[in-house]
Amino acid sequence: MITLIITAYKEPKTLEKQLTNITRQLSRLNVSAEILVCAPDPETQEIALNYHKNNPQVKLLKDKGIGKPAALNIAFQEAKGDILILTDGDVEIGEEAISKILKPFKNPKMGAVSGRPISINPRSNIFGFWAYILTEMAHKIRLQRTKEGKYIDCSGYLYAMRGSLIKNIPENTLSDDALISSLIYNKGCQITYTPEAKVYVKYPNNFKDWIKQKKRSTGGYVQIPNLIKKSLGVGADPRVRLSNLKTNEGQTHGSAPTMRGLSPEIKGIFQIFKYAQNPQEFWWTILLIFARIYLWWLIFWELKIKKTPFVKMWQRVESTKINPN
Predict the structure, then answer these.
(1) Could you report the per-residue pLDDT of 57-96, keeping only the tens digit for each?
(2) CATH code of 186's domain
(3) Boundaries of domain holding 23
(4) Which of 153, 161, 192, 324 is the most buried (most CB within 10 A)?
(5) What DSSP designation does 237 have?
(6) Residue 296 placed within a domain
(7) Distance CA 187, CA 151 (A)
(8) C-alpha distance across the termini of the chain, in Å
(9) Which string of DSSP letters, residue by residue, matches 207-235?
(10) pLDDT in tens, 123-165
C-alpha cells in the first residue's frame, strides 16, 4: 500500500489542485493508496473533507498548528502504507512523479528517494535567478553524489521512504527532510535521487521572505547532529554511539551525514558563477554570495547566541504560495 502525506496550512486553493493531480496519477497506477492531508486551519480542512466525499482514499488529519514536524508525527502514526510519499500543499508535483519516485523501491535496500524541485520563479529578476541557481546546484550535487554512492538529503518538497523506518521526529526540528534523511541513512539504508520525479516550487520574491525561508531550512542543519543523537538515544543509552553506526558505504562516522552546510558552500562558492549569462546575472551572483554570508551569520546569532526558540524560527513565507489560477 502507498500513503501520500500532504502537509498544508492556509492553502485551500493550491491543495485542491494538488489533490486533483495526485488522485489522477494514482488512478493510473495499479496500487492501493491513501492520501493523508494534515492541516490545522478550517479553510484547508474543508477542501480535504469535500474531497473525501467522492474520494474515500483522501483522509483529513487535524494537527495542532504547531509546525510541520508535529503534523508529520501524526501522519506517521496513522499511515498504513509500506511506502510513504511526502509533499506539501503549496507545490505542484509533475506528471508521472508518483510512478517515477516509486520505481527505486524495487531494491529492498532502498530506504528513501528524493524528487527534483524546479523553480517556477522567473529568472528575469534577482530572486528568481537565485532560486534558479540554488535549485540547479542542488540538482547537480544530488546527481553527482548519487553516482558516487554518497549520502544525499531528500528534498522536503517531494520524497518517498519506507513506512517502517521513521515513526517520530522531534517537534522542534527545523529541517525535517534533512533529519529524516540522516536517520534513514544511519539505519544502513540507501537513499537515491530520481530527477524525473519533478515538483514545481515557488520560491520567495523578496529579501525578507528569502531570509525567513533560508534561516529555517539552512539553519536546520546546525540542529542535525544533536537531533540525531536525541532520536537515536545517544547519551541516554551508553551502548549507543554515532561512531558505531554503519553507513551504507560501509564506513563509520562520528557525526550526522550531510550534503549541505557552511563548509560545502565555501568549497563550491566559485562554481555558482558559471550560471551567470550576462553582466546583470554576474552581479546578482555576487550579491547571492554576500546574502549567504549574512544568512550564516544570522543563523549563528539566532541559534548559538540568542538561542531563539523553534516557534520564532518557523515563520510562514507568504510569497512562496502558488497562485493556482
Answers:
(1) 999 999 888 889 999 999 999 999 999 999 999 999 999 9
(2) 3.90.550.10
(3) 2-120+149-204
(4) 153
(5) B
(6) no
(7) 13
(8) 33
(9) HHHHHHHHHHHHHHHHHHHHHHHHHHTBT
(10) 999 999 999 999 999 999 999 999 999 999 999 999 999 999 9
